[in-house]
Protein: VTT domain-containing protein
Amino acid sequence: MDAIMLLVDFILHVDRYLEAFVTNYGNWVYALLFLIIFVETGVVVMPFLPGDSLLFVVGALCGVGLMDYSLSIALLLTAAVLGNQSNYTIGRYIGPRVFQWEQSRFFNKRAFEQAHAFYEKYGGITIVLARFMPFLRTFAPFVAGVAQMTRSKFTFYDVTGGALWVGGIITAGYFFGSIPWVKENLDKIIWAMILIPGVLVLAGAWKARRNAAVGAGS
Structure:
């Protein structure tokens, strides 16, 4: 329980933790940030790390001169791209074995075939948009690998989405993070960055399930 409370406190007050780390350990902050972004995007069991808020705070620290703007974008973009590639590779390694399984209570082969068809048609935009959605950005590259999306196509959208995500949020933090109102309400902004995309994902999943049910009943 203490560990969970500490994680929640870190997510909601990541600005204080990160500023303290920069003050005490200097450039080691870049290694820490690289690791966090890589793990969040590259390890499918770690979807709860504070990617969006972390990038925003990094931008704010760049804006006040505590971190380097260009280095932060280059390093964290690399971490985001490599993380997705790792996640995709894990899914692609598992995928061929999964598709050989027979239908059972633990595996729905038809669902995996639908996922493959979906990623062939909409995989690119899914990879890009998932970057901005907590939890979904961790699972999207894994599912793309399982669904056997081609590596070249995945890499193109991986880099594109990563550049928009890392560059966009760090830049937003750089220009707006030092505004007094933003600093005073950062915890609320962080909650919004977590909850709003989550609600959109749940609403989309509910709508898709409802449409599927209607289609099956007709």
Observations:
- The mean pLDDT is 77.
- Residues 119 and 149 are 6 Å apart (CA to CA).
- The chain has one domain: 2-217.
- The longest helix spans residues 186-217.
